[in-house]
Predict the structure of Cysteine-rich protein.
Amino acid sequence: MRFFNALLVPIVALPLTQAGPIAYALCQTGCNTVAVACYAGAGLVFGTVVAAPAAPAAALACNLALGTCSATCATIGLFAPTP
């Protein structure tokens, strides 16, 4: 019983936190901004390149980076506690 109390007191003392949908939205906005800049750096316009095997390698690399960033946002922004 002492072990349970030793765990319970620190947990109860922590402030309540919730995952932040606003933080998630800001993170996704940052990812999309970087993707647009990536496309512009490759001389392309974001949203106009058809995702096909014939797409330029730079567009595919930008899409891969956007997917990785979005997945990271989902993991951190939706599930990690924010005060």
Q: What stands out?
A: The first helix runs from residue 2 to 13. The chain has one domain: 17-79.
